[in-house]
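User: Predict the full complex structure for these chains.
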Amino acid sequence: MISAASSIDALQEALRAHPQVLPRGAGTKPALSTPSGLTASLDVSGLSGFVDYDPAELTFTARAGTRVRDVDVVLSAERQYLPFDPPWPAATMGGIVAAGTSGPGSYRYGGVRDFIIGIRFLDAGGRLVGGGGRVVKNAAGFDLPKLMVGSLGRLGVLVELTFKVFPRPEAWATLRAEHPDLPTALEQVRRLARGPIELDALELHPSGTLWLRLSGPARTLPARCERLARAVGGNAELLDEEAADRGWQERREFAWVPAGADLVKAAVTPSRVPALDAELARAGAARRYSRAATLAWIAWPEPRPVTGLDLVLRRLGLTGLALTGRPSSGLLGARTGGAFAQRVRRGLDPHNRFPGV
Amino acid sequence: MSLQLLLRGLASLYPAARLLTGSAELAAYESDALTSFRARPAAVVLAETREEVIETVRLCHVHGVPFVPRGSGTSLSGGSLPLQDGIVIAMNRLDRILRLDPDERIAVVEPGVINRRITAAAAEHALLYAPDPSSQTVCSIGGNLAFNSGGAHCLRHGMTSNHVLGLEAVLPDGEVVRLGGDSLEAVGPDWLGLFVGSEGLFGIVLEVTLRLVAAPEAIHTVLATYPSLEAAGNAVARILADGLLPVAMEIMDELAIQAAASVVNGMPTVPALLIVELEGERALVDGDAERLDTAITASGALTTRATENPAERAEIWKGRKSAFSAVGRLAPDYLVQDGVVPRTHLAEALAAIGRLSSERGLRVANVFHAGDGNLHPLILFDSTESGALEQAEDLAGDILRLCVRLGGSITGEHGVGVEKLPHLIELTPAEDVELMCRLRHAVDPAELANRGKALPVVRTAAAA
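Assistant: Here is the predicted structure of the two-chain assembly.
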């Protein structure tokens, strides 16, 4: 059953009309937003649009169903941006927050959890509640905006979100460097991450290829690119604008994921990448490592149930989240939160009006 | 609740030297940096191991006695103010840096470690622990987590919470949990993000994994003076409008400058000064420094001084960071406020604070994080005059109401504690407070952990 709502009142009504609901935005991450059994789907994509945006304030408030690409357009016009490259231009901002997904640009200034500053949501009882606010610093009350990052639509129905934004860089430049293998490339990643060059993005392919992005005033870029090329080695090559845009676009839309594969993100650290990569290679999974090898994007081949990856991640003590594929809470691998998570969830949703996390 | 049974249990857990019950010993723990509030606890334990902390919390739970964790006692909102019928768990002896891994860029530390020690340890590897509260030389990382502390450099680096990757904590009934991990990425609800900044209401942190970043190649600091506070405020708006992203933008008014001049040499005698700092890759800082210079010149600065000399920079920041303690020399007592306003309303807020100050006949010194809109009016008074504290508190309330009316917040980084609890209740929608109470009760039904701070006490009956 699907209920669509384009106003808060209608959402509240729909929420109360069903014993259990699961919110859905644009449906770009179907594993998380497709209900199973008797759970009703609550379509919030109609609740969209900017509520407030004062460029001088460097913050904006939008309804949860607002699309990422619409936010891009509005912010670009004021020479501002969300530096963390929210993945999937078609996704809703509510979906970005609920899934907790950040793109390559999160390397420099942080991800979605670092940019969200305020939130309004419907709790399990249909009450409109919230936390944080419209100012960039706020220590009054619990940090509910952060709690809702990664909440998977299972702690509340997101209604309105406030983000801080940064001035948009004047220009970008992308370098590609080819190292002979993953260990050599990982060593470069570690060195760069500890070094003085301020990278915008630092992406790693299992083959040993690095994608590096710089941003800033256009006139500073040529010299900075040269310096970076010397630092990174691997015959680093400056990509022309079209090739660069295509590469980043491909990442943002996950165009590299083979048809039929399930997309999974996993939290990693550089030192844990080799063991994970060996397992993924054995399983024939395409994969990319993002943000200086702290985030793995895994395309798990469809013939293999994702439970196989669950076991791999558990064995390595890693956590993962399935975004496409069969409906589930998405959580794979080791679990964190323990008794604290259980109690907070019970406090927010004592009658299981949302599916379990 | 049985305090006597708890004390008996604690006596078998701690040697006598680390279980304080005598009134002279307890006196030192009666208040924190919010000195106008005092309470003598029933006992103070000086924990040295995580096992002692866990067992102490468990005993408090069994006997229904509330507990207050305390690091260095630098809370400006009374976050570690004791309860008369409760105990204080002093955490400052759990002060080991357990691991610092430069390749993974993380530090694993115990909660009693002083903020500055982490920064110093990271610096040995050309890394930086970014959050730098003004009290960084004395405040503990456990307290920083509890209050999601800020500092002068959060404009670009964010607050403490943006630098915590994982933690281990004991919940108010003695159960131990791990939240987060050691990756920059996280999966599932951000339980860690909820725990950080919860003012001790969800339990006590036993171990923290912190994120380190590469130390900046260049740091460019500018000190500009202005003929008025308003002019300095407008300069901040101009710098932001120019698309610059400094790492810090701080303003001090005449009174705050006067106070700082008593502890630091070379403070100018002007109505307002602005400190702006750029940091990062050399080529970027050089380019931004030129643009910043143009913006500051255009903003009507009286004088500007730019430096990249570490000693000069340290001197500039010493003047800024000593302002709170220095203001203590201008009057016997002061209340520090921590309200936030939208950055575009900075000038309006400062003018209104000036008006309120003269209406009430109380001097107010202003020293604040202008780039974030985070004000720190210091209300000067003399507590020996009858009614003076109440007058100062009334003025503080007026200022916080003003902040909220302008679309801001009652606290940016000091937390609610006991001091701003009435304002939280007055100025936060009731359903939001109720939601937070529900979360608190789900974790701590008897409200044993830091009772009386951050949220209204609603279940004393359950705890009795």
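The first helix of chain B runs from residue 3 to 13.
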